């Protein structure tokens, strides 16, 4: 049904399956592919920026070495000229005044010693300059390769952007019950959390921050995963049920940071939550980050407070970008506002 990743997907009323399950799978595929591509693009941009900085630094070093080599060359020329003139003068003095020839000989040896040392330095500079020029050529070639990769990825992103229309077509095919499930997939999430809680991974001992302060002791002190406006509070009504976390409005692509150290125990697409990350902090506490654009963390990763684990998106069928953030204790939802730093004028972070 799907073309290779990155190619536009033909969608019409005739070829879209009426199966709600199939539609959900298609939505998962589109949103996951978009997220993977967005993450790859960001990684390429970072690499290109690094190479640009490296290339700029290399050019500065090359200019410095060229300037230094010119100065050394000029100084060498003056010394050679001075030695030549001194040699002629000493020879004349020897003829006219019978001056001690040992003195002139010592002076010429002295000048020759420093000239040889300067020549060696110039040779060393030339060798370094050659190496830098070679490295600059390599860096420029690599940067061109990365630029081409970025161009290719941008084309890929454009194709996926076109899929936003296809995404809308998909969403329009969902019936009312499935739409409510997209807006609230709590029962599926609860099943996953229950499964996770039964695994030994929930008994983590190492994930702590603030010099060994356990998660439970950080109540009211945890940082928020992003900055933004708190648009949905814990317990607010939604299309089906109530919010078991909070919704923070933020620009798509905004980095999401873990609020505390822990182990990633879930990183995948889940109906109703889109691309979701769950971090186990030990002591039966977990934090949840959903509706993501891309997932940077994977299952089994140990993260520290402040590590980037995902980026803000609108996966899961959302109309606007934002982050769902939840806190769980023994699988039960608790109000994140009571655990994180104060909300100021409706904004967090």
Write the topology of this structure.
Layout lengths: L19 H78 L3 H72 L3 H8 L2 H12 L30 E5 L13 E4 L5 E3 L4 E9 L3 E9 L2 E11 L6 E2 L4 E5 L9 E8 L2 E3 L12 E2 L1
Antiparallel strand pairs: 1-2, 1-11, 2-9, 3-8, 4-5, 4-7, 5-6, 6-8, 6-9, 9-10
Helix pairs in contact: 1-2
Report on the structure:
The protein has 349 residues and is an alpha+beta fold. The protein has two domains: 24-169, Helix Hairpins, CATH 1.10.287; 182-348, Glucose Permease (Domain IIA) (Distorted Sandwich), CATH 2.70.70.10. The chain is 49% helix and 17% strand. It has four helices and eleven strands, in the order ααααβββββββββββ. It has helices at 20-97, 101-172, 176-183, 186-197, and strands at 228-232, 246-249, 255-257, 262-270, 274-282, 285-295, 302-303, 308-312, 322-329, 332-334, 347-348. Mean pLDDT is 79; it is low at 1-18 and 201-211.
SS field, number of helical segments: 4
**In the residues, how many domains can be counted?**
2
Helix content: 40-55%
Structural class: alpha+beta
Order of helices and strands: HHHHEEEEEEEEEEE
Spatial extent as radius of gyration: 34 Å
Report the CATH architecture of the largest domain: Distorted Sandwich
End-to-end separation in angstroms reads 43 Å
At the first level of CATH, the class of the largest domain is Mainly Beta
Mean pLDDT: 79
Q: Could you please say which CATH topology of the largest domain applies here?
A: Glucose Permease (Domain IIA)
């Amino acid at each position: 049904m799907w073309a290779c990743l990155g190619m536009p997907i033909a969608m019409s009323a005739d070829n879209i399956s009426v199966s709600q399950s199939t539609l959900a799978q298609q939505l998962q595929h589109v949103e996951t592919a978009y997220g993977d591509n967005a993450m790859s693009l960001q990684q390429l941009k970072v690499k290109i920026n690094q190479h640009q900085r490296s290339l700029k630094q290399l050019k500065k070093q090359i200019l410095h070495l060229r300037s230094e080599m010119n100065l050394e060359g000029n100084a060498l020329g003056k010394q050679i000229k001075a030695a030549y003139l001194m040699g002629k003068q000493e020879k004349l003095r020897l003829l006219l005044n019978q001056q001690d020839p040992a003195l002139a000989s010592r002076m010429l040896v002295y000048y020759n010693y420093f000239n040889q040392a300067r020549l060696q330095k110039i040779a060393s500079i030339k060798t370094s300059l050659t190496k830098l020029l070679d490295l600059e050529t390599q860096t420029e070639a690599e940067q061109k390769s990365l630029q081409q990769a970025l161009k290719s990825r941008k084309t890929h992103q454009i194709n996926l952007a076109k899929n936003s229309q296809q995404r809308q077509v998909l969403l329009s095919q969902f019936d009312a019950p499935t739409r409510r499930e997209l807006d609230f997939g709590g029962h599926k999430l609860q099943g996953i959390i229950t499964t996770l809680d039964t695994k030994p991974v929930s008994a983590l001992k190492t994930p702590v921050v603030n010099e060994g302060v356990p998660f439970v002791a950080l109540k009211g002190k945890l940082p928020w995963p992003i900055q933004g406006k708190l648009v949905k509070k814990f317990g607010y009504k939604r299309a089906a049920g109530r919010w078991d976390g909070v919704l923070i409005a933020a620009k798509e692509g905004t980095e999401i940071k873990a609020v505390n150290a822990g182990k990633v125990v879930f990183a995948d697409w889940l109906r109703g939550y889109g691309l979701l990350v769950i971090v186990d902090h030990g002591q039966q506490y977990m934090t949840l980050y959903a509706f993501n654009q891309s997932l940077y963390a994977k299952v089994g990763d140990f993260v520290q407070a402040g590590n980037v684990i995902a980026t803000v998106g609108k996966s899961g069928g959302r109309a606007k970008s934002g982050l769902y953030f939840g806190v769980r204790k023994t699988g039960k939802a608790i109000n994140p506002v009571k655990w994180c730093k104060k909300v100021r004028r409706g904004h967090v972070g």
